[in-house]
DNA sequence: GTCATATTGTTTAATATTAAACTATATGAT
DNA sequence: ATCATATAGTTTAATATTAAACAATATGAC
């Protein structure tokens, strides 16, 4: 093999493993969301509101990497279930502030705890040092322009 | 912070970075598929056929981690574009063998080369050793039961 | 003030995805 | 041979997602 070939081979291999790991972990962790009848996106929205407080839809879209059109629907569905509330802001009436309701807060609190536990369990196959290393390497890949 | 807290914190942090890296890289690499009017799933199917030869739909579904129902549609669309061909097997008439057409082979050959180059470019932010390390750590996370 | 431009959120149309019900075929026990 | 079970693929209904067009509101130049 020429050096280029081994370089390519290594890159493809690493890429594949990264993707598989992400899919695999997402799928297992996601079961805890599905158990509470939350999609990954719905969980993402509620989790953002839990940890950042009330947000407008645009900020939510940016946070969970989805289109604003999609967020409209996700919030619609959460609103129907009484988990969040929309509130028009008077200083700038284009904005809507999305807030957790009491029920929403209670639910995401509980589901987040389970998800958190699942993530900790997933990561337990790695030592602390390995986790730090993985985080550092992933961060290098994540940084860069472009959606995502 | 109690030890449990730092453990949890580290796990969540690592998880987030893993997810961001995967999304980010997928999104950038995926542009090369979109440029040829291929969805990620369509690319996945063609790529599997390119590197593994003819496959039945069930195997394709397993390979790209999608439902068999979805594969039916993906293959339908590829067939409409004349990129693959379905062929009933006579030894067991439940099976369909999916083959690349000449046109399909030509296309995936070209698109795969671009995707490959994109992946190599993505991975260039990591040294060879770092790639090996990332691969090893991801593999530990990926292994386990469960869809994915 | 008025108009051009930006921005927030909504709607629409197209596509993707899944789970579950279904059809057709094969296999194995009796 | 027959029947129960399993398997491959399809269909259907529900949901998710995006891009693009759109409505409402804000901002800034003049």
From TrEMBL, chains A, B:
One GO biological process this protein is involved in is:
response to stress
Residue span, HTH marR-type domain? 11-143
Q: InterPro entries, per this entry?
A: HTH_MarR-typ, MarR/SlyA-like, WH-like_DNA-bd_sf, WH_DNA-bd_sf
Short name of one Pfam family: MarR
GO MF entries: DNA-binding transcription factor activity
PANTHER family for the chain: TRANSCRIPTIONAL REGULATOR, MARR FAMILY (PTHR33164), TRANSCRIPTIONAL REPRESSOR MPRA (PTHR33164:SF101)
Protein name, as recorded:
MarR family transcriptional regulator
